[in-house]
């Protein structure tokens, strides 16, 4: 399955950080709406740079294989599952 | 809603009462809630001292005193599920600012060498003995669900309680405060940090774009972003976002600095330095939890020493 990238439009503040950080130019900037758009999802390498950098946490990626983060604290991560 | 009512105990530890009061902010929805739940113990609105057995226990406030500790343990024994309700219960909250000092120093400052007190003396008959340090609820008892927020907005509270009562997974986004903020983020030529108090700020432009430190991008949205709408930068009261909590190499000051340096001409190092100088405020809400306090990058004692050496 290929990678899917979505931006929750209402949450996008138009900062263009995702446009700038993306190494494969997946995003373009819609000047009229002052929002970022996903325009080249087929090039996405799922580096997740945009996901981590987005100030609103408004970008979602799906359909990629996650490599286990060796530095992630598993105990804290499990606790996250119980956050409402 | 269910026909048999779900029993609920509400309890506060070292809290301001804001979380309990926020439950009343459910407005008419509180009637729906009362159709489904039977409140058995709630110090804010009832005078019932006993804590009967209950399905759900809502606890707000941090564990600051031995009394808090005892109450938390008793609630755990009496309730099937415990919800840490509000930032203080989840992360320790603002009383965590006391972590920078010993209990003796705090008692001395409050009762003896207080600038507005003459001839003060520390109280001999303390109502409740202080714990050695502030603890979030999950350091004392196992917690089933966490609902941060100072207080959590009624929308989240209602959704959380409705989901717990119905036995389903609650709908909650893990977006930051920026996700609901109405301001636009634009790249600017601003080259210096602005306190935001010296002159009027643009009410439609992001604080970071204007050089003012705002914790919106590193704070979990459990508030629907009311502060930025009325001209106040986010102080991070609902605690850090999931990526900061789960990943030791991510931190409030570095994430704000990275984004601010991308939006303005202010170097990231300058933002980091400013946030370290104001660390007691910027980290206030969540530093008692090990998720933030035990980060290898979190060196608050060192930062405070640095500030005290220069003042």
Question: Main traits of this protein?
Answer:
heterodimer, A: about 80 residues, alpha+beta, Alpha-Beta Plaits, two-stranded antiparallel ribbon, 3 helices, about 20% strand, B: about 300 residues, alpha/beta, Rossmann fold, 2 domains, five-stranded parallel β-sheet, 13 helices, 7 strands, about 10% strand, globular
Structure description:
Chain A is an alpha+beta fold. Chain A has a single domain, classed as 2-Layer Sandwich (Alpha-Beta Plaits), CATH 3.30.70. Chain A has helices at 17-21, 49-53, 74-80, and strands spanning 4-7, 27-30, 35-38, 59-62. Chain A has a two-stranded antiparallel sheet with strand order 1-4. Chain A has a two-stranded antiparallel sheet with strand order 2-3. The radius of gyration of chain A is 14 Å and the shape is globular. Chain A starts with a strand and ends with a helix. The N and C termini of chain B lie far apart (59 Å). By secondary structure, chain B is an alpha/beta fold. Helices cover 34% and strands 12% of the residues of chain B. Chain B has helices at 18-24, 29-36, 66-78, 87-91, 103-112, 154-166, 226-229, 242-246, 252-263, 268-277, 279-282, 290-293, 300-310; strands at 6-12, 37-41, 54-60, 63-65, 79-85, 130-135, 145-147. Chain B has two domains: 6-100 and 124-166, NADH:ubiquinone oxidoreductase-like, 20kDa subunit (Rossmann fold); 177-310, no CATH class. The mean pLDDT of chain B is 90. In chain B, helix 2 (29-36) runs parallel beside helix 6 (154-166) and helix 9 packs across helix 10 (268-277). Classes of the chains: A alpha+beta (84), B alpha/beta (311).
């Amino acid at each position: 399955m290929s990678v899917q990238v979505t931006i929750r439009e209402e949450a996008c503040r138009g900062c263009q950080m995702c446009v700038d950080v993306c190494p494969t130019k997946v995003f373009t900037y819609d000047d009229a709406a002052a929002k970022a758009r996903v325009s080249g999802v087929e090039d996405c390498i799922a580096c997740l740079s945009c996901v981590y950098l987005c100030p609103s946490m408004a970008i979602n990626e799906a359909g990629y294989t996650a490599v286990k983060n060796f530095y992630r604290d598993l105990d804290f991560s499990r606790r996250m599952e119980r956050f409402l | 809603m269910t026909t048999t009512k779900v029993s609920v105990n509400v309890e506060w530890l070292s809290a301001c009462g804001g979380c309990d009061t926020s439950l009343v902010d459910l407005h008419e929805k509180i009637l729906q809630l009362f159709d489904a739940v039977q409140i058995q113990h709630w110090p804010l609105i009832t005078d019932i001292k006993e804590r009967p057995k209950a399905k759900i226990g809502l606890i707000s406030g941090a564990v600051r005193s031995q009394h808090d500790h005892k109450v938390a343990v008793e609630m755990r024994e009496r309730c099937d599920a415990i919800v840490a309700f509000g930032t203080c219960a989840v992360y320790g909250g603002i009383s965590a600012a006391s972590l920078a000092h010993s209990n003796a120093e705090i008692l001395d400052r409050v009762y003896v060498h207080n600038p507005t007190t003459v001839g003060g003396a520390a109280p001999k008959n303390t109502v409740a003995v202080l714990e050695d340090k502030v603890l979030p609820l999950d350091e004392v008892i196992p917690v089933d669900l966490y609902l941060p927020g100072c207080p959590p907005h009624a929308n989240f509270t209602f959704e959380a309680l409705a989901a717990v009562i119905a036995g389903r997974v609650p709908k909650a986004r893990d977006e930051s405060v920026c996700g609901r903020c109405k301001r636009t983020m634009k790249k600017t030529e601003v080259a210096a940090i602005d306190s935001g108090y010296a002159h009027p700020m643009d009410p439609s432009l992001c604080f970071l774009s204007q050089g003012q430190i705002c914790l919106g991008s590193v704070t979990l949205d459990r508030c629907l972003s009311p502060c930025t709408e009325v001209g106040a930068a986010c102080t991070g009261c609902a605690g850090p976002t999931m990526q900061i909590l789960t990943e030791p190499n991510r931190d409030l000051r570095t994430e704000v600095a990275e984004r601010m340096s991308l939006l303005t001409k202010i170097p990231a190092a300058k933002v980091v330095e400013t946030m370290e100088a104001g660390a007691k405020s910027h980290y206030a809400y969540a530093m008692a939890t090990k998720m933030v306090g035990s980060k290898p990058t979190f060196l608050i004692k060192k930062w405070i020493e640095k500030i005290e050496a220069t003042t």
